[in-house]
Request: fold
Amino acid sequence: MSDILTTCPYCGVGCGIRASAATEGPEQTPTVRGDSSHPANFGRLCVKGSALGQTLSAEGRLLQPQLNGADCDWPTAINAVAQGLQQTIAEHGPGAVAMYLSGQLLTEDYYVANKLMKGFIGSAHVDTNSRLCMASTVAGHKRAFGADVVPGCYDDIEQARLFVLVGANMAWNHPVLFGRIQAVLQANPEAKLVVIDPRRSASCEAAQLHLKLRPGSDVLLFNGLLSFLAEQGKLDHRFINLHTDGFARALASAQLQAATVEQVAIGCDLPSEQVLQFYRWFAAEALSLTLFSQGVNQAVDGTDKVNAIINCHLASGRIGKPGCGPFSLTGQPNAMGGREVGGLANQLAAHIDYSDKAQQALVGRFWQAPRLVTRPGYKAVELFDAIARGEIKALWVMATNPLVSMPQADKVKAALAGCPLVIVSDIYQHTDTLDVAGIKLPALGWGEKDGTVTNSERRISRQRALSPPPGQAKADWQIICEVAKAMGFDQGFNFSNAAEIFAEHAALSGYQNSGERAFNISVLAQLSAEQYHQLAPIQWPVTDTRPQGTARLFADGKFFTANGRAQFIAVHQRAFNEAAPATPLWLNSGRLRDQWHSMTRTGEVASLMQHRPEPFVSLHPADAALYGISEGELVQLSNASGRLLLRVDISDNQRPGELFIPMHWSAQFASRARADVLFAADTDPISGQPALKLSQVALRRFTPKWQALLLTKQPLTALQLQLFNQHYLARVPLADCQSYRLGLTEALGPQQLLQQLQLTPTLSCRDSQQDQQGLQSQLTGYRAAAIEDNQLQWLLLAGTELAAADQVWLNRQFIAPLSVDSRRQLLSAQAGQGKTLDNSALICSCFNVRSQAICRAINNGADSTAKLGKQLQCGTNCGSCLPELSALLLQQKALTRQQTLTQQKSEELSDVSN
Ligand code: SF4
Reply:
């Protein structure tokens, strides 16, 4: 069987994948490798993409529809959805119905969902999790260009010589694209990377300059750059005069707060030499590319930040030309596809919004829509607020997990608990959101679905099925169309495959579009089913004049505004808040290298979980000293919205007074680590995007009486997990069992724990010591296990500290009958006494290489990533760990230098005293 070409379902880079379908045997999973012909990645994949084959198991999948907790067949489920929606509309009007979609959906799914709601049901309340990652960029693009358009393409990377990374840890979040930047830096000594980020991220390892600025001061920094360009005579007056409006106002606004480098340096809390260095490099290098992501978008002034960046590119004429431009990095695989379709509450369809009545009518005609909406609907935060106050009474969530990702996630949970009709389409049996749904619909996942996605450079690529649908799972578009038909909308939803939907979507993009709408792929409306099946990656617009697609826009200086000119936007830096005494620390959130969103897929891959197995908070050493906290302790973070329990990671990557937590952990993986619980629902007033990068929290030590490691063959049930609501729990799936790292308060000792979990040991041992008076013996350690039919069922290791355990060896004991030796060694949690365990951080997930082994190799003379790769293989497959290898090399070199200096000093002192 020949390979199948498809696209990675994780980040917005949109890497092409060459996969072999499973051919023989139930155990065989498809092999996955990079597609060397795909222009996004030319064969490379990062660690997440490389592990995709391991996510294709049927384990944990939702395979049958469920109604109120009981399995049912599809006709019953479809009727329940259709009748539930119809009844809600009859009793409360169409505005009582909402959909919450996802950048994980394929464009075809998005298209029919949007059409059903906005044209047939008559509700504009269709929003998407892209509101949480891209909405400010959409708003910024529309203000500046008149359309939501990324001007450039990935090929600009190879042509650029200055890369400015703003609020984007590309090394972890867009790794393959970052690899292309690193290649340029290595091949061109004059090329430079500047990283603008309040914390030192992995991307900084390749940077010539890191501006560790005050959180939220980006507008000031870029206003300062605009002032500097003007002052230094580096403006492109010809471009400004011919192709833009509003320059004078934008410059005056910039100069008001950021006329001098010193003003900027003070406001941004940066050394003025660093600010000046950045400005000089930008002014001098025409081939400058500014790439930005969530650190820019997820802010109360995210749209202004986007426009502050775009202003500098318009002022220097660096747009629409090779090797330069503002470049928004989309977070999700199909955030862009959702935007094309109009799947945001403030858009109607196909890049048509609600401001132009004639364009709206055009959509109504094209769809022959009985109930076309005429006003914007609720954006994500407003939507869940409307549910909380009972205005929206029926919600259909597809392929996303708002109980983890929305700000004030506990409030969202309460809102959904009170919503009369919650329908969730998902691929897994349990997600935080699915667990509160009345109707659960099994959808197809990656490797089963068929359709298109669009990446950050407007490139439409096919996702193709590698295997048949599991159980009774169906494509999202199919489920939506069946519901539509059950509601009586046969005419608009009689699609028999994804190709037909794509053709209609493409036709709408070109319908009465004589160039005023940027999104136009009308040429693709003519594709036959076979041509659609074979469709090669292509960048929109795809029109009669550009049938091969369009790499770069605005080369002619024409924009999509009413007068064809780009718009400068006058933006101001907002006043910086002071931290309140009760919550004196600033909290930032972000993503990790090996995880994706709420971990439903990546969290179940044992090797990916080993990079950062537990939810953590990073804090500066000065703060750790201030709070008297040591590395690896547990702490509580809290504010008025909620409380988290996390493991401490002390790191001078942080600025003092500022914390970082990863956004991935859900209730399926930890008792109290849903990051977004702690973020207020403050939004950008223009884009409606929540500020998920800045919150205020209080920190205090969480001192458990017991720390325990529990390994079980079967995962704990939801009921069992409730036991840990007030304790620390982190689930870390291993290859053949589940491991739980526990921090238990006095109220739950190890033996009570086993009782409550109804686990009966077949072997156990206790450690105890006399109390201070020597009167009573106190339990200090407890180890127990259960063996049935010579098979290990579970193992508990409890003590005052987390037990050292050889988890690789322990994992093996769950799959083979126990030998006599293994039985004997079980409670000591390792084979062979005195063996040195390496439980240090896993750096290379591909070859299972940990930091301890890497540091040992460095100390033994491996002084480059190449030498480390040769010795240990680390970094030689996907390369995602290369920035961390570089960081370890630097760290070890600094340590050695420090040790040498200390030794020299002590020798000098001893000479003096002699
Ligand atoms: Fe997938 Fe990694 Fe490529 Fe992103 S960079 S699309 S996660 S392989």
